[in-house]
Amino acid sequence: MISNPQFARFAATSLFLLAATACSDATSTPWPTATPELDAETEAFVDNVLQRMSLEQKVGQIIQAEIQHVSPEDVREFGLGSVLNGGGSFPGLDRRASIADWTALASRFQDASRQPMAEGLPVIPVLWGTDAVHGHNNVFGATIYPHNIGLGASRNTALVQAIARATAADVAATGIDWTFAPTLAVARDLRWGRAYESFSSNPELVTELGRAAVIGIQGPPGADWLGEARVLATAKHFVGDGGTHQGIDQGDTRLSEQRLAEIHGLPYGAALEAGAQTVMASFSSWNGRKLHGHDYLLTEILKERMGFDGFVIGDWNGHGQIPGCSVTDCLPALEAGVDMFMVPEDWREFRTTMLEHARNGRVPMDRLDDAVRRILRVKKRAGLFDGPTEGAAALPETQAHAALARRAVRESLVLLKNNDQVLPIDPGQRILIVGDGADDIGKQSGGWTLDWQGVTETNESFPNGQSIYQGIAEQVRRAGGQVHLGEAGAAEFDPDTVIVVVGEDPYAEGQGDVSTLEFQPGSREALDMLERLGALDAPIATVFLSGRPLWVNPELNRSDAFIAAWLPGTEGGGVADVVLADENGQVQHAPVGKLSFSWPAAPMPNPAGEFPTLFDFGFGLAYGEVPALGALPEDAMAPRAESTAEDADIVLFDGSASAPWRIMLRDAAAETLVDASGQIARTSGPAALTITPTDRKIQGDARRISWPGNTEDAVLLSTEESVDLRPLRDRSAAIAFDIRLESEPPHPISLAVECGESCAGSVALTDDLGTLPTREWQSVHVALKCFESAGADLSRVSSVFAMSADGPVELSLADIRIEPEGAGGATLGCDG
Ligand code: BGC
Ligand code: BGC
After folding, report:
1. Cβ of residue 329 lying under 6 Å from some atom of ligand 1
2. Interatomic CA distance for residues 254 and 285, integer angstroms
């Protein structure tokens, strides 16, 4: 555990660095360095393989494709270097895929890549990478640990190392060799949607915990390094991802090289020293230039100065963002130093253009060879040439992992307020638990949990998890107390103490960017609830779930005690361990978490661009020692948002469906609805309708939909309580969407508005769509009145969008909305 004297050390180092800034010159920028050790035997092996490779094999090795878009046969045919499963991508599109399903798919990829090659060409095993960023989080039933921000609050390097080790063991058990973790971002602006992936705003703390994570994932250099239950780690995202202007994801980090190195570069030295074998390039820019095209940072600094001898993996189509590049054609990124390209969907076209460049002498061959050599070196070190990663029948040590996660939850909690020593609570009492975070394992786990954006459905997605409510209820009942969940019946229950669990809903990456740090700006949802609960005259303890410190003065004022619980993951019981006393009224586990970011005293930055601080970095109360926290100013609160029902611009789907609508698949054969709020889903049967993510304007904002054969299956935006769309029809509104036809015509597609059982107005789009070009995004709309003339009762709409096709048809959809008829784009449907 990092104790107080060590905080002092962090502070001292920071001061030292600040002082150093003032007097150093540009040639001696403080990039940390590591001492790589090239092993002669490995190098000889790699050279031998490299010499025997064909050009096609070399180009194949620098490509990584996504498992929904690549088959084991493709890997064999094109000699691809790697595959990944993106966040929320599972074997067979099945979010409940078993460990056996994962292992079987891994073996198929392994076997395919290990088939003997013709003409003496070398056999090169494929690598599979996954985002196991807080546990093996794409796997149904796996233990989910607190996100990095919570681990940062624990400041416990041994704990971080143990979690990384346990996660690596889970990853290895599914036959996967590589995790895209740890994130070494030093988040400096909490408006960033990835702040929770960052351990801390303090570079030294990120360095210590990042080093521990790398050692836990790969094993300590020397003994057991990349051994059986270990996998490859990724130091990401190099460099400056956490420093972007206003915290905008994939934005621009504007800093001197000195500051870039000492703030954002620092953790990479320790990670490389600990043996991190891959580094992921950041989507972001440094002073206006994208990292994926930054030869100075990727090659001169990272590889030459810092001594990195593994390979640089590009981020998800990140190369496509370099000026002059596209996703399918980007030589400058290779030249700059990206060694392997993450081209999830479009890898075929990327391969074709790269090969063409190579055949026409446009690819610097030393650079290509260097990239391939680095990839082979890592594969050799990881033992891939010695035999495939053997998966297991089940995840290992699940109970021990759950216990570890629960301990991590306890150690990550930061006590911010505890007036009148409300905490810990006597479990023999009558305890009321309320708030939308109380009994929701998806919400308490945050983004990168089963789905990329996190889970928005029920606790059934977590067969082994425990919600915060469940954890508390278990202990209270055991102690003879009583618990009541929810506000209904609260007054009759007459609680002794109220526990409120509220916070942010899950998000990932740019979708979590915010413009203000106010919790629920323009809404009084949580506040109104706290005020209603205040009337019960029992002390209120708030457990706050969030991916970052937020401005919560109004909520703090209405709570007697307040705990920052971050995104604890599946072991909600860890909250009970701290919040509740034992049966004898003794503290079970004292709160030990300390803020690894400072907590804002205002929702917006001051003119200097800084957020004033309410609780300092390192703050965290212990039980018993506390002066009471007085009333805090609330005048910065945003006014309550006015309802905008007036205008006819309504977003229905922009990567996720807007309430009250939910995105579903109708499985005609099984007569069921399949939730499609995750990124991928499918109906049952051989010609199943499938839906997978794709990109329109930003990552993951679109869906690709495929009807391989004739089914009555449909993709729907539906709601349980019907909606009256007549006012919108009266204002001449239309259903508008962006569409990209992926298959050749004809496109026997129909779009309906549905109004409950056997009520629909369906419009055939086949002829109109036949006139649109394929593989290009188009904006189209169908007037609401068309659906009405086709039989829809607009007074009680149950599905605002119901698309079906007489397959085979494949298309992508984005930005489904309601807008005024004349707003632009092609008019489809009825005439006039
Ligand atoms: C993220 C990376 C992640 C990758 C693969 C990207 O969108 O930025 O952190 O490793 O996707 O899922
Ligand atoms: C990936 C993300 C990616 C997103 C975009 C997810 O599956 O993990 O990294 O940005 O898909 O579609």
Report:
1. no
2. 8
The ligand that comes nearest to the alpha carbon of residue 183 is: 1
3-state secondary structure of 340: strand
Taking alpha carbons only, the member of 111, 117, 68, 81 closest to residue 354 is 81
Find out whether 98 and 391 touch, Cβ atoms under 8 Å.
no
**Cα 197 to ligand 1 centre (Å):** 12
Percent of the chain past pLDDT 90, that is, above it, reads 86
**Cβ of 316 below 6 Å from ligand 1:** yes
Tell me the per-residue pLDDT of 63-100, one tens digit each, with 9 for 90 and over. Answer: 999 999 999 999 999 999 999 999 999 999 999 999 99
Q: Which of 316, 511, 679 to mutate to test the pocket of ligand 1 (most atoms within 8 A of CB)?
A: 316
Residue ranges in 38-95 assigned as alpha helix (H):
40-52, 55-61, 72-78
Q: Is 241 in the pocket of ligand 1 (CB under 6 A)?
A: no
- Map residue 30 onto helix, strand or coil: coil
**Nearest ligand to the C-alpha of residue 814?**
2
Match 């092993």 to its residue by tokens: 39
Q: How far is CA 317 from the centre of its chain?
A: 16
Determine the residue of 67, 250, 316, 507 to mutate for testing ligand 2's pocket, defined as the one with the most ligand atoms within 8 A of the Cβ atom. Answer: 316
Q: How far apart are the first and last CA of the chain?
A: 72
Supply the angle between the helices 4-23 and 203-218 in degrees, to the nearest 10: 110
Query: What are the residue numbers of the active site?
Result: 315, 509
pLDDT band at 678 (very low <50, low <70, confident <90, very high): confident
Per residue in 735-781, pLDDT (tens digit) is 999 999 999 988 899 999 999 999 999 999 999 998 999 999 999 99
CA distance 433 to 431: 6
Nearest to 182 by CA among 228, 129, 237: 237
- The pTM for the full model equals 0.92
Residue environment code for 561-596, b if the CB has 16+ CB neighbours within 10 A, otherwise e: bbbbbbbbbbbbbbbbbbbbbeeeeeebbebbbbbb
Instruction: Compute the distance from residue 195 Cα to the ligand 2 centre, in Å.
Output: 17
Ranges assigned E (strand) in 758-808: 760-764, 777-783, 797-806
Phi-psi region of 537 (alpha: psi -120 to 50; beta: other; left: phi over 0): left
Whether residue 424 is preceded by a cis peptide bond, meaning omega within 30 degrees of 0, is yes
pLDDT at 397 over 90: yes
Both tokens assigned to 272:
């490389």
Separation of CA 679 and ligand 2 centre (Å): 9
Residue nearest to atom 10 of ligand 1 (CA): 180
- Alpha-carbon distance 348 to 116, whole Å? 23
- Helix axis angle, 398-412 to 157-173, nearest 10°: 150
451 Cβ below 6 A of ligand 1: no
Beta strand segments in 661-769, E: 662-667, 672-675, 681-682, 690-694, 702-707, 710-723, 733-741, 749-754, 760-764
CA torsion, ordered 573, 171, 162, 593, to nearest 10 deg: -50
Which residues lie below 8 Å from residue 819, measured CB to CB, with a gap of 6+? 648, 649, 650, 733, 734, 736, 781
d(CA 824, CA 419): 58
Ligand 1 contact, 87 CB (< 6 A): yes
Query: Which of 64, 130, 131 to mutate for ligand 1's pocket (most ligand atoms within 8 Å of CB)?
Result: 131
Instruction: Give the C-alpha separation, 765 to 749, whole Å.
Output: 6
CB atoms within 10 A of CB 227: 13
